[in-house]
User: What shape does this take?
Amino acid sequence: MRNTADEPSEQRANCRISLSAQGRISEPYQGQHAVELLDISASGARIATFRQFQIGQAIYVTIDKLQAIKCDVRWVKPGEIGVSFDRQLHVSVVDHIAAANRARR
Assistant: This one.
């Protein structure tokens, strides 16, 4: 795993909302596995996962009962990845996910 200069820092176009949401990641030929979404915005998410991913890897993320969202891995840290969604989520979808999965403190 490696980090990049554009990992989760100041290079954001959309505001991120902290949450604690159960989800699934699907990888071609690897199946699905459970993950926890730590924050989300219209353009991407930060995800806790024990699996290793490569920057630029295409994956699908499923949150709640929504349709799987195609994503690209943008950064990798031990135990976490950051993804960008291929298509931005509508603000009402982000609000719904956040309201249903408020971060546990």
About this structure: The chain is about 10% helix and 45% strand.
